[in-house]
Structures are given as structure tokens and as C-alpha cells.
Design goal:
The protein is α+β, with helices and mostly antiparallel strands. The chain is built from four helices and 16 strands. A hairpin with a 6-residue loop joins strand 14 and strand 15.
Amino acid sequence: MNENDGLQLLAPLRELDPDARSSVDIEKAKRVGRRTSRRRAVVGAAAVVGVFALVGIGVPALSGAFSRGAVAPAVPPAEFNPLIEVVTVGTAGGFQPQSYETGRTQQVIRLKRADGGTGSGTIIVYPPGPKPDMPPGLSFEWTPGAWAWIRLDGPEPDMQARADRVRQSVNAVPNKFAKVPFTLDRSAEDWMKVSNIATFYDNRPGDPSRVTLNFSRDGLPGTPSMSIVASEDGYGPGVKENLGGHEATVTEAYVAVTDRASGLNAIAMTDPSSIPAAKQVIATLEFVPDATNPAKWVTNLFR
């Protein structure tokens, strides 16, 4: 018992009127009290033994229970896993996804006109927590306790109504890992952490055509330390080196390899001082079979 507990127990006594007359037989109460005290002494001794036995067996449990009630643990800020896309977005309001970028503090979906006309849109999805400050647009809870924001731009006067239809196509999904056309050895994480994955849909909706993995040394948002772009786009000349069985092209700005079976390229772009690290990462890269076919892409980036 601490000092506060004692004060609470004594509080009712402070409210009694000391001048009030009592009908209690004081002498009789003393006799009964002496008999009760002798019985309590025996019971109390047994109880003390039991308490010490309990302390000897379960101190961690007791201390944990009291500490949880007395001191609330610090709550870390909510973050996304940058390997996971938390929502799906359908074609609605005349718009469809053009790209999906994961991240730790927010996820961003860029929209384009489904008919190829003029117009664009953006959806920003935030982790669970208080409603963030958002620019003008349509805000909504994409899942209870977590907010998202939509804005559409176009020549039509009904953009707000279209945005509401887009909102209705946004659905939360559990554990939807972003898909990639290659894997890296787990040792690559010793040098870098994934900060986000950007998937682009240049062809059919939901059919990715290229992907960019952005990395940083601490995995936090910001300018990445390295980007690996996987696409069928070409790259320039450079010094040829054998890296992990790949014939790699090495320059001061990037290290590039080509999957000879499918023609897909993987280009690791970074600053000149990090080219040696980029070479180590590319040496561990393995393309999936039929790498230009998105149906063959995998969710396990690290093996």
C-alpha cells in the first residue's frame, strides 16, 4: 500500500462528526476485539506464508499487472509496411489507376482517364490515427479510424460526383503484397531498406507494366539511396562486368542487367559513391521465369 492508498482509506473518517454521541458499548467491543485479534493472528500468519509463496512463484506476473495499470506504454506512430498495398481501387467515375506507390507514412494512387481523355486524379491513403490535415478534396475513412483523400481534375463540371464514385471503388484489403518480377538475396537488406514500391499500369487496368523499388539506408521516406527500375525500357552503354552470372553494364550513375529469356531490364540507379553497393545488390538479383508476364511476378521480394 502506498501513501495515496492510505489517504483514500482514511478519507471516510475525516467526514465523521467527533462530537456525535455513539450507542456502541465500548467495553464489550474491547472484549470481542481481543478474541477476534487472536483468531486473526493465526489466519494472518498463514496468509503471509501464502503471499510469500505466491511472490516466489509469480513475481513477473504480478509486477507486470501492476505496471500495466500504473504506466501506459508509449504508443508508436502508425506506419504502413512498404511492401504491402492496403487498398484496391477500381475503374469508376471515368478514371482508373495509373500507378500505386506504397510507403510507410502514406500510400499514393495516381489516376488517369479510362477513355484516354483529359483529366487526372490522386488518392492519398493514411495510416490509422487522427484525421490529418488535407487539402481541398473529398476525404473519407477507408477503414474505421483511418483516412484517405481524393481529388480529380478534368474539364467536366461534375468532378465532385465523379470523385464520390471513385471513393466507392476504394476497398481495404489485408496483406496484399506488391508484386515484383525479380527477387533479391536477404543479405541486400544489410545495406538498404525498402522505402516504397511504385507499380505502373501503362496497359490494361490491374496489369502492371513496370515497377520501381526505392531504397534508403534507414527505410524512411525521402530521397532514396537507390532505385531499381524493372521495365522493358532500354539503357545506355557502359563497362561490362560479370555480376552473379549476369552480364552487367556499369556506369557512374547506374548498374543494369537484362533477362535474356524475356528481355526485361533491371537498372539500379544511385550516386557514384554507392555504385559498389549497387553492384553487390544486382549480383544477387534473380529474374522470375517469363519476367515480362505480370502473372508470373511474385510477392516475396527477398529470398
